Amino acid sequence: MKKVLVRYKLHPERVADNEALVREVYRQLHEQRPDGIRYATYKLPDGVSFVHIGSYQTEAAHKAFTSLSAFRNFQAGIKDRCEELPAVNAVEEIGFYA
């Protein structure tokens, strides 16, 4: 299972654009319902920093996620929206409760 944590900081005037793009990713996820994906996005208290946490049961699930047109649209302009570019880290789950 692949798990990633991504953190970045936006230019303040680009927050609304970013949120709209993220919401479109979730709309497409809910519409297509691909298997083996857990994904969450959080805005931090500073209002400009975001954290995304993705969990993919298989490489096929990861590919399904990164192939979403909404995700590709989100990634397309990320450099222009960011004050601090995304830092992508593989993470190891120690515990989970839902």
Provide structural commentary.
The protein is built from four helices and four strands; from the N terminus they run βαββαααβ. Helices cover 39% and strands 34% of the residues. A hairpin with a 5-residue loop joins strand 2 (37-43) and strand 3. The two termini are 18 Å apart. With 98 residues, the chain is α+β, with helices and mostly antiparallel strands. It has helices spanning 15-32, 59-66, 69-76, 78-81; strands at 2-10, 37-43, 49-56, 82-90. Helix 1 (15-32) packs antiparallel against helix 3 (69-76).
Keywords:
98 residues; alpha+beta; four-stranded antiparallel sheet; globular
How would the blueprint of this fold be written?
Layout: E1 2-10, H1 15-32, E2 37-43, E3 49-56, H2 59-66, H3 69-76, H4 78-81, E4 82-90
Antiparallel strand pairs: 1-3, 1-4, 2-3
Helix pairs in contact: 1-3
Work out the number of β strands: 4
Biggest sheet details? 4 strands, antiparallel
Shape: globular
What is the residue-averaged pLDDT? 96
Q: Return residue spans where pLDDT drops below 50 for at least 5 consecutive residues.
A: none
Distance between the termini: 18 Å
Structural class: alpha+beta
Rg (CA only): 13 Å
| Strand ordering within the main sheet | 2-3-1-4
Strand content: 25-35%
Estimated helix fraction: 25-40%
The secondary-structure element order is EHEEHHHE
Number of helices: 4
Summarize the structure.
This protein has helices at residues 15-32, 59-66, 69-76, 78-81, and strands spanning 2-10, 37-43, 49-56, 82-90. It is an alpha+beta fold.
